[in-house]
Amino acid sequence: MGHERRENAFFQGVTPTYDAGYTLADTNFRSVRTFRSHGRLSKYDRWLVLEVRLKIPNSHPTLHVDGNAYDLSHLSAFAVPVAGKGREEGTDLNVLVKFSNHVFTERTMHGQRHDTVDHRGTRRSFDADRYQMSLRLPDLIANAFFDGSYCFVSKDFSGFENLMLVQMENGDTWSVVFCFEPLADAVVLEVLSTHPKPIRDHHASRRPLVFYARKCLFGQHRIPKN
Q: Fewer CB under 10 Å: which end of the chain, C or N?
């Protein structure tokens, strides 16, 4: 498996509820939050088993920068069950959402102090603006599956494709960069980065997040496929 680690995450059954919010679920390794949608969820009568080849961690420790402690517990992995969108008719599509530390850091420049390293070992420096934006990311991503948010495929400077969701925050246009990775009966949404940038892909074809999630589930390959 090389540098990749395999982790079996067992998500406890979701109790039906009308309350929006997050609940904690027991796992073999770490706590993983389960998202409650705005509405009634069907009750799971068994444990949902997700086998995850980890590249991006499920959680991030508190980051200490210049005497300040930045809590990162809001970036712990969580699960979003999307009702009726699973592989079989009447089943849910389960999405595990994880965050790279690129959502609160930037690449360390030559001569600049680094505050942490990413999952590949690359040096990263804390970015206050990205950190503030990261506080909204869990709700933003979870709600995007239920409010019909659209995203599109975008290429970086090296020609590598990712998905992009555009949001406005404090007058800035923020790009949320992510991809989907397949599991046997679920998918992982990996949030790779966030940063303010102009919208360049004005004519890009936009589709709902759930379209790309289901494409990943049925195709059993990364979306976008590079």
A: N
User: Cβ of 132: how many Cβ atoms within 10 Å?
Assistant: 12
Separation between Cα atoms, residue 24 and residue 15, nearest integer Å: 12
d(CA 54, CA 112): 29
Residue with tokens 């809001």: 74
Q: Are 41 and 82 in contact (CB under 8 A)?
A: no
Two tokens, residue 223: 């979306």
Residue 68's pLDDT band (cuts 50, 70, 90) = very high
Q: What kind and span of H or E run contains 48?
A: strand 48-54
Q: What angle do CA 101, 24, 20 make, to 5 degrees?
A: 95
Give the pair of three-digit tokens for residue 182.
Answer: 């397949």
Residue 105 identity: T
Is residue 165 within 8 A of residue 143, CB to CB? The reply is: no
How is residue 137 annotated by DSSP?
Answer: H
Question: Which residue from 120, 121, 124 is spatially nearest to 102, judged by alpha carbons?
Answer: 124
The pLDDT value recorded for residue 203 is 65
Structure tokens at 102: 């690129």
> Could you give the dihedral angle defined by the CA atoms of residues 13, 14, 16 and 17, in that order, rounded to the nearest 10 degrees?
160
Closest by CA to 92, choosing from 217, 178, 222, is 217
